[in-house]
Design goal:
By secondary structure, this protein is of the alpha/beta class. The chain is built from 8 helices and 9 strands. Helix content is 37%, strand content 18%. The strands form 3 sheets. Strands 3-6-5-7 form a 4-stranded mixed beta sheet. It has a 3-stranded mixed beta sheet with strand order 4-9-8, with no helix packed on it. It comes from Rhizophagus irregularis.
C-alpha cells in the first residue's frame, strides 16, 4: 500500500526454532536473501518466556530514532497500514502505548504500538524473568505501568481492531470489520483471507487473485 511520506519497514521476528534443521536453515536463508525480512533472535522460540523483551531489545538496537512508532502484531493478522497511519498521525510521538483494550486475563492483543522512546526504555533495562514470563501482552502492560506509569499515555482503539468472528473463541464475539478497520486477526484459512481482501479491494481484483490458487 502506498504510504506517502511514511517510512515503514516490515520484519518477521522469531526465536531459534527448537528443531533447527539444515533444511529449515536453508529455506530461511533463501527467504531472507530474497526479501530481507527475517530476524532470528538469539534465544529459543517461545511465546510467553521472555521473547517479547528480546524483540523490543532487538528493535532498539538495530533501529534509530527516525521512527516514530514500533508495532507488534501476529503472523495471522492482516494490517491495513494506511488506516493505521491515519489513526496514528494525530497521536503523541512520545510516551505512547496504543492497542486494543481487553481486560481479560489474556489480553489477546492483535496489534500493539509503542512510541520509539518506550522501546528504547525497555531495551536499556535489564531482563527480569518475573517481569517478562507470562502472557506476553499482559507482561508488556505491567512493565510499562511499573516503570513509566507517570508519563505513559495509554490510548485504546476498540472500534477498528478485530478478530475474525468465525474463530470459535470468546475473543471473537464482535461485529465484522469495515473498510476503515486497522487489523483483522486470527485469519487461519484461505477463505478467511479472501473475505478480508474482499473487504478492502474491489471484488474484480480479488476474484482474479484467488482464481490463481
Amino acid at each position: 500500500m502506498n504510504l506517502v511520506g511514511d517510512k515503514v519497514d516490515f520484519k518477521f521476528i522469531f526465536g531459534i526454532p527448537p528443531e533447527f534443521t539444515s533444511e529449515l536453515e536453508s529455506k530461511l536463508s533463501i527467504e531472507n536473501n530474497t526479501y530481507g525480512d527475517l530476524i532470528m533472535l538469539n534465544n529459543i522460540e517461545n511465546m510467553n518466556h521472555g521473547k517479547l523483551y528480546y524483540y523490543w531489545k532487538w528493535v532498539a538496537e538495530y533501529s534509530d530514532m527516525q521512527y516514530d512508532y514500533v508495532i507488534k502484531t501476529d503472523d495471522d493478522a492482516f494490517v491495513h497500514f494506511q488506516n493505521l497511519a491515519l489513526n496514528l498521525r494525530p497521536l503523541p510521538r512520545k510516551n505512547l502505548y496504543y492497542r486494543l483494550e481487553n481486560r481479560d486475563i489474556f489480553m489477546y492483543r492483535e496489534l500493539e504500538t509503542l512510541s520509539v522512546d518506550q522501546v528504547h526504555m525497555i531495551a536499556t533495562s535489564s531482563f527480569n524473568q518475573t517481569e517478562w514470563y507470562g502472557h506476553k501482552d499482559r507482561m508488556l502492560e505491567s512493565w510499562l505501568l511499573n516503570h513509566v506509569n507517570s508519563t505513559l499515555i495509554q490510548i485504546s482503539e476498540n472500534c477498528l481492531i478485530f478478530n475474525d468472528p468465525r474463530t470459535k473463541n470468546r475473543f471473537s464475539r464482535r461485529p465484522w470489520a469495515s473498510p476503515n478497520s486497522i487489523v483483522i486477526h486470527r485469519i487461519k484459512e484461505i477463505p478467511a483471507w479472501k473475505s478480508v481482501i474482499d473487504l478492502y479491494i474491489p471484488k474484480i481484483i480479488s476474484s482474479k487473485f484467488f482464481s490463481e490458487f
